[in-house]
Design brief:
Layout lengths: L1 H9 L21 H9 L1 H28 L2 E2 L9 E2 L3 H8 L6 H30 L4 H15 L2 H11 L6 H7 L15 H26 L3 H9 L4 H29 L3 H6 L11 H11 L3 H30 L3
Antiparallel strand pairs: 1-2
């Protein structure tokens, strides 16, 4: 009995505390090292290579080659007769030695660009405000407005040539209702460019309207409600609430409209061929005419370089302006 009690007394009355278990670390959603490895892996570049190769062959390569051609008196039938002339093409461009003079062509392009930017914005923004309703009628109207933009330029240019026909055209028929005589729209230097502008606006307004509709869909409804509670009328609400929020979209429209107008070619080729004279010969059309009609490929390449520079400048303006708008003051 004594030994048994001694054995019982030797055993501690309380059990030893359980060992402390450290918490199991949570597995991260991703491993930075693995992500870094994926970005630097040759396999990643293998997937990018097809797109990069196409972009290099069809965009970067021709762009560099255009810079090279602009420094030559280029013989496109026999390249062995090419003659390096340095900046002579650019000198002819600045001095206006080639007919039509560069500055005249630049002025014609500026006329078309300003008309397209101002006209497209002034017409499309009110149209978007009108069509932003969600009813079926307005949805159908949006589709009808955008439909003009997806039609082929060549086909619609031919249709509008007939609309502007001085004898049988619909445009002169409408003018006759108001007692105005026939106008030779495409053969008169005074009306040729306005006629092309009318057609180009008809073709592009649908696209610009859709951009503004997208911008209107992102506006803050609380600000509009607050403006109405403060007693603002429709114009004050638009000018002080809607318009400031649409500035990034307006800037985007201005830049893309400027670039597309500078590069416009099809309507000028189909409707007037740059005429009468050179009154509708813009930079985009002169690239074709100088290279393939007058056979002055080096000078045409210099024009292309200038057009490229203007496009890059407009893109930089858009990027910087967008950053300044997005950055809080």
């Amino acid at each position: 009995m004594a030994s048994t009690s001694a054995a019982h007394t030797a055993v501690p009355a309380s059990q030893p505390p359980a060992a402390h278990k450290s918490p199991v670390p949570m597995r991260p959603a991703f491993k930075p090292s693995r992500r870094k490895t994926a970005l630097t892996s040759p396999v990643a570049y293998l997937f990018v290579f097809p797109a990069l190769a196409i972009f290099t062959v069809f965009t970067i390569g021709p762009t560099i080659y255009t810079f090279v051609i602009s420094a030559f008196k280029w013989n496109w039938l026999n390249t062995s007769q090419n003659k390096f002339i340095g900046l002579k093409n650019y000198q002819d461009l600045v001095t206006g030695a080639i007919d039509p003079p560069f500055w005249s062509t630049l002025g014609t392009s500026a006329y078309f660009v300003v008309a397209m930017v101002v006209g497209g914005t002034v017409i499309s923004l009110p149209l978007a405000l009108l069509l932003q309703q969600a009813s079926r009628v307005f949805v159908a109207a949006r589709a009808a407005v955008f439909l003009a933009h997806v039609t082929p330029l060549v086909a619609t240019s031919i249709v509008w040539v007939w609309i502007f026909n001085p004898r049988y055209g619909l445009a002169n028929l409408v003018l006759s209702w108001f007692g105005i005589g026939n106008i030779d729209w495409l053969g008169n230097s005074q009306f040729a460019m306005p006629a092309i502008i009318i057609y180009s606006l008809w073709h592009e307004i649908g696209f610009i309207t859709v951009i503004f509709l997208g911008g209107l869909a992102t506006l803050s409804g609380e600000l509009s409600e607050a403006a109405k509670l403060d007693g603002c009328n429709a114009w004050q609400e638009f000018w002080h609430v809607t318009f400031p929020q649409l500035r990034p979209f307006i800037l985007f429209v201005v830049v893309i409209s400027s670039v597309s107008s500078l590069q416009a070619f099809t309507q000028f080729f189909m409707m007037t061929s740059g005429g009468p004279g050179f009154d509708t010969a813009t930079l985009g059309f002169q690239l074709y005419q100088q290279a393939f009609v007058f056979r002055k490929t080096g000078y045409a390449a210099a024009l292309a370089v200038v057009l490229f520079g203007i496009t890059v400048a407009l893109s930089i303006v858009q990027l910087r302006s967008t950053r300044s708008i997005d950055t809080p003051s």
